[in-house]
Amino acid sequence: MDYKPQNGGGHYPWTPARETGRFDTTARAQRRAILPSDFTIDAEELTPTLKVRRAVVHYRYQAAIESIYGS
Amino acid sequence: MTSTTDPLARDGEVVSLADGGRVLVRELLASDRDELAERYLELSPGARRMRFFNAPDHLSTRLLDYLVDVDGIDRCALVAQSLDDGTPGVGIARYARSHDDPSCAEAAVTVLDAHQSRGIGSALMSRLAEPAATASPRSPPV
């Protein structure tokens, strides 16, 4: 199946302590990105029971992921 | 875990759990929509992540519409209601057939954190297998 990688949205500073402060530092998301659209079943980003297809998301939005975690 | 012929079973099946509790297992109804949204808020982040592989703060209108849109054939959902403590819904299980291969289906089950390890998930999943196996799926796409 051919999944086209997409650049997605922008990212913005985020204070993680409020939402993930109870997790260990290594388990906290340090940044997050706003993608251009919601995940959908039709786009095969979600399974029929609405689970996220991580491999598809990682591949399709690799540019967005690398832009916030790549350096 | 046993089933009984309790009069409450007219709307589903009363299941006695190993810990002595009882739940009513019945089909999900469109009228369960609001409760589904409320119960989701009671799930721990870990339980949300186990179910959806992410942990949204709430179920959006679109997701709720999809989750209650069941037909008993291609998309089927069963809910468990506690008959002991008045908690309306303590668990839900569903399957959705594959679009490409209707003989295959994906299943998902969620039980409120406080009711986990009571056998509710097993009760739901075992009963979900019957309609999955017996309901006639639509023809696969050409």
Keywords:
A: 71 residues; mainly alpha; two-stranded antiparallel ribbon; 3 helices; 2 strands; globular; B: 142 residues; alpha+beta; Aminopeptidase; six-stranded antiparallel beta sheet; 4 helices; 24% strand
**Number of E strands of chain A:** 2
What is the CATH topology of chain B?
Aminopeptidase
Mean pLDDT of chain A: 75
- SS element count, helices of chain A: 3
Count of folded domains of chain B: 1
Question: What value does the Rg of chain A take, in angstroms?
Answer: 14 Å
- Estimate what percentage of residues of chain B fall within beta strands: 15-25%
Sheet with most strands of chain B: 6 strands, antiparallel
Q: Any idea what the shape of chain A is? A: globular
Helical content of chain B stands at 25-40%
Distance between the termini of chain A: 30 Å
Rg of chain B from C-alpha positions? 15 Å
SS-derived structural category of chain B: alpha+beta
Strand content range of chain A: 5-15%
Largest interface, counted with CB-CB under 8 A?
A-B, 9 and 19 residues
- Structural class of chain A, by secondary structure, is mainly alpha
Task: Return residue spans of chain A where pLDDT drops below 50 for at least 5 consecutive residues.
Answer: 12-16
Q: How much helicity do the residues of chain A have?
A: 25-40%
The pLDDT mean of chain B sits at 87
Brief account:
The complex is a heterodimer of chains A (71) and B (142). Chain A is mainly alpha-helical and 71 residues long.
Structure description:
The complex is a heterodimer of chains A (71) and B (142). By secondary structure, chain A is mainly alpha-helical. Chain A has a domain of 37 residues. Helices cover 27% and strands 6% of the residues of chain A. A two-stranded antiparallel ribbon of chain A has the order 1-2. Helices cover 29% and strands 24% of the residues of chain B. Chain B contains four helices and six strands, in the order βββαααβββα. Chain B has a six-stranded antiparallel beta sheet with strand order 1-2-3-4-5-6. The interface between A and B is medium-sized, with 9 and 19 residues.
